């Protein structure tokens, strides 16, 4: 779930999670394509994150946002249960980021 404004800004949605598939097999790519939708990132069960972008720089930016968000959420879980941001607010934050901040 989206629990951080940075996640709402950059990703604009939950990060999808793909099923466990064998590394190096065609199924890995198929599962990523099947689950990623319009997200910039996906976490594959028992494997880890994959990110995409229009170029390498955008994919790297997505990877950095994903890693930093994950670290922050882990720390938040240690202190309690992070609260999800309502979808309507996530949508507003993401729209603002895309239109005004994240060009």
Automatic annotation (TrEMBL):
Keywords attached to this entry: Metal-binding, Zinc
GO biological process: pentose catabolic process
Domain Class II aldolase/adducin N-terminal: 4-73
GO molecular function annotations of the record: aldehyde-lyase activity; metal ion binding
InterPro entries associated with the record: Aldolase_class_II_sugar_metab (IPR050197), Aldolase_II/adducin_N (IPR001303), Aldolase_II/adducin_N_sf (IPR036409)
Gene3D superfamilies: Class II aldolase/adducin N-terminal domain
Any one cellular-component term (Gene Ontology): cytosol
Cofactor(s) for this UniProt protein: Zn(2+)
Entry annotated with the keyword Coiled coil: no
Protein name per the record: Class II aldolase/adducin N-terminal domain-containing protein
Species: marine sediment metagenome
């Amino acid at each position: 779930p989206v629990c951080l404004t940075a996640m709402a800004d950059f990703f604009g949605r939950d990060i999808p999670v793909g099923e466990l598939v064998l590394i190096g097999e065609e199924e890995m790519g198929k599962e990523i394509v099947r689950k990623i939708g319009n997200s910039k990132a996906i976490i594959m069960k028992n494997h880890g994150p994959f990110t995409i972008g229009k170029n390498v720089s955008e994919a790297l930016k997505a990877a950095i946002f994903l890693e930093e968000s994950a670290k922050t959420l882990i720390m938040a879980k240690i202190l309690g249960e992070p609260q999800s941001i309502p979808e309507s607010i996530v949508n507003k934050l993401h729209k603002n980021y895309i239109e005004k901040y994240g060009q």
